[in-house]
Amino acid sequence: MLIAVSIAFLRKHEVTFSFSAPMKEKKQKASSYCLPRRLQGVQTTLIRQIFEKALPDSINFGLGEPDLQTPEFLRREAARVTLEEHNGYTSHAGLLALREKICAAYPHLSLNPNQVCVTVGSQEAMTAVFLALLEDGDEVLIPNPSFPAYENCVKLAGGVPVFYRLPAEKDFGFDEEEFSSKITPKTKAVVVISPSNPTGRILSKEDLERITGILKTKRTSIYLISDEIYSDLYFTDKKPTSASEFYEKTIIVSGLSKSLSMTGWRLGWIASSQTEVVQSALVVHGFLTVCTSTISQKAALLAWTEEAEKAKAEARETYKKRGEFLIELFQKELGVKCTKPEGAFYTMADFRQFGDDLELAERFLQNRVITVPGIAFGSEAKGFLRISFCNDYEKICEGVRRMKEVL
What we know:
Layout: H1 7-12, H2 46-52, E1 59-60, H3 72-84, H4 96-104, E2 116-119, H5 121-133, E3 139-144, H6 149-156, E4 160-165, H7 176-181, E5 187-193, H8 205-218, E6 223-227, E7 250-255, E8 268-271, H9 275-289, H10 294-300, H11 306-334, E9 346-350, H12 357-366, E10 369-370, E11 372-373, E12 384-388, H13 393-406
Parallel strand pairs: 1-10, 3-4, 3-5, 5-6, 6-7
Antiparallel strand pairs: 2-8, 7-8, 9-12, 11-12
Helix pairs in contact: 3-10, 5-6, 5-9, 11-13
């Protein structure tokens, strides 16, 4: 199945992509619909566009979707509350007991439940935060490369995305001079993602001290949005440090989707000592969704138990071993170097020797392997492919074999 897309056009316009179905010959009636300005240039991510075009029985190195099952104790609890309890609306902010547990996860902040909003996954959390913070024309600093939803959510809120490079030549590590140069009087917020999607890199304590030091020096009114959705999936000795430990105006966006394989349960949150921001985001959340699934919230009360911590540790060990195996296999079988992941379940594989990353991803797709071209995450990752190791060893080997056929 060929993707109907103009590669030349995509090269010219690196920000906006469209994998469209071929035009039907039959003439379509003219539509009176006019796309609102806030939606112009906003499209489904290239990640999803590629995934939707995948052939049956494809090996999925593309989506950030844990293949591990949600732990049994959580599934049993969800079944129990479904059968035994009434599950109507909760408050907009979420169950009080759940918000108290989220507060306890950040002891250094001494949060109260009014400083937490339970959301429909971390993506709704980020969207609500941007809508609560931004005026038209406000600038938001976003890493390049980074998860593409940030750019589009900023645009939806009327903001202007401004990108700071995480240089490929530094294995996508933080560059202090580059970051500092992007801050202007229009900067309203800065996004940091640690562990990173797509690179798997972690911002060290020293990196975060440099980032927050720059913000304090430049202007204290800048908000720092810390995406910590992968914070429990780390391969280092210690859990990644939260930016909120160094900067008062930090807004944490997180959830349970990745650490406990709960992507479909849609359970995330906003947490911050900045009460007014959380309460404003809560208003947005209330009109967007009313509340997060009551069943998901009740089951999530077990997400900080000993059983849950054991499940998180087992997931970390599984992904760590898979990542090491995949990286070694890529080097041995494909001659491709990958970044060493410090967390999450991604690596950036350097395919620059083989040509255009978008063309290469399309060729792999035709041989039933889903990958994501680096350009989907920003110009700095051009020539790379983001590879997810959410697969067992057998599938990883088969995926690499199919890729080798293409090369």
